[in-house]
Amino acid sequence: MKNALTKWLTLTFRMLDDQDNCDEITDLRRLTTMKKYVDDLDLHLTTLTAKKD
Question: What is the top-level taxon of the source organism (predicted)?
Answer without folding.
Answer: Eukaryota
